Amino acid sequence: MSAIEGVSEIFDPEQWDDVPGFDDLTDLTYHRARAHGIVRIAFDRPDVLNAFRPHIVDELLRVLQHARTSSAVGCVLLTGTGPSGKNGKWAFCSGGDQRIRGRAGYEYVDGETAETGDRARLGRLHILECQRLIRFMPKIVVALVPGWTAGGGHSLHVVCDLTVASAEEARFKQTDADVGSFDGGFGSAYLARQVGQKFAREIFFLGQEYSAEDGVRMGTVNRAVPHADLEATGLEWGRLITGKSPTAQRMLKYSFNLIDDGLVGQQVFAGEATRLAYMTQEAAEGRDQFLEKREPDWSPFPWYY
Predict the structure, then answer these.
(1) What is the pLDDT of residues 72-111, one digit of tens each?
(2) Strand 28-33 to 16-18 pairing
(3) β-pairing, 101-102 with 28-33?
(4) Is 271 a known active-site residue?
(5) 73 touches 142 (CB < 8 A)
(6) In the prediction, which pLDDT does 120 show?
(7) Does 278 participate in catalysis according to the annotation?
(8) What DSSP designation does 55 have?
(9) Which of 165, 191, 178, 149 is nearest to 52 (CA)?
(10) Which one is catalytic: 271, 278, 288, 297?
């Protein structure tokens, strides 16, 4: 059986190709849509509800960076493989694998407990780097939630630009306080921007389970769809996203982010505005007059109002 077959029960291999150069992935699958500029990244540890460990985060950073720097890619679908062969459950990502959580973070392990960790490598909490990469990449990131999303996995769906969830299988639960953890950044403060302060505090303080329809009602999920249609819906949304102006989509994402991201958001937005300015004849004149050691001629360029 080829690597692209058997990825997930609702995955359509006719729509996707393996991304070359990533045959060594063990905890993720990475595919490129045949018809559009869309990539699909899936957590691939279904028997532990796609919980993350340092190795999977290393792989996620690697593929997100590849997607970010691929000029033909405009949309990233982030999802989870399933169902579990052990219990038949579906998951997006259930957060950090608590079995390998050490005193300073999650351990690189040979076995299934923190005691088997590599003492030469530090415990990590670099899933936050993935959050920032999703937030700041100039591509639209869509979470496709086929089942459980909890803890750090819940925070990942929150930081994605859009969320589509399985009406039958998706379950949302913020378990941070149950395990002595807390996401004080995008996972909580940005969640409050989506659902309001009262709902956000309910989600964290009570740690209850919510359905896809609950997510739609609260405002953290865009659409609840039949489970069998989840992947097809994600592909269709990706087609709609990539069918529009790349520059407009990029600037819109950074515009939405700007008010919440402070000076970092301003820097990202202004950096993209600077790139656009560099593409103008006016900017070319600024460069050329400097290199040619002459007075600039700004006369062709009006003071727009």
Answers:
(1) 999 999 999 999 999 999 999 998 665 555 555 556 656 5
(2) antiparallel
(3) unpaired
(4) no
(5) no
(6) 47
(7) yes
(8) H
(9) 149
(10) 278
- C-alpha pair distances (Å), 266 with each of 78, 187, 217, 259, 260: 26, 21, 31, 8, 10
pLDDT above 80 for 288: yes
Would you call 96 a catalytic residue per the annotation? yes
Catalytic, 176? Answer yes
Among the ranges 2-6, 92-96, 172-176, 286-290, which has the highest mean pLDDT value?
286-290
pLDDT the model gives residue 222: 98
Q: What is the mean pLDDT of residues 191-204?
A: 96
Q: Is the dihedral of CA 274, 276, 279, 284 positive or negative?
A: negative
Three-state secondary structure call for residue 29: strand
How much is the pLDDT for 109? 57
The Cα 302–Cα 91 span in angstroms is 56
Q: Per residue in 145-176, pLDDT tens? A: 999 999 999 999 999 999 999 999 999 999 88
* Residues 125/106, Cβ–Cβ less than 8 Å: yes
102, 181, 207, 286: which is the annotated catalytic residue?
Answer: 181
**Which pairing describes strands 171-173 and 209-211: parallel, antiparallel, or unpaired?**
antiparallel
> What six digits make up the tokens of 94?
């259930």
- Judge whether 210 counts as a catalytic residue: no
Catalytic residue among 8, 80, 106, 183: 106
**Burial (CB count within 10 angstroms: exposed 0-12, middle 13-18, buried 19+), residue 34:** exposed
Mean pLDDT of the chain: 90
Lay out the sheet containing 140-145: strands in order across.
16-18, 28-33, 38-43, 75-80, 140-145, 162-166, 223-225
Catalytic one of 80, 82, 96, 238: 96
The catalytic residue among 152, 153, 187, 238 is 152
Active-site hit among 44, 176, 183, 214: 176
- Among this protein's residues, is 27 annotated catalytic? no
* Residue 63 in this model has a pLDDT that exceeds 80: yes
* Dist CA 154 CA 148 (whole Å): 9
Model confidence at 1: pLDDT above 50:
no
Q: What is the DSSP letter of 99?
A: G
| Rounded Cα–Cα distance for residues 53 and 64 (Å) | 16
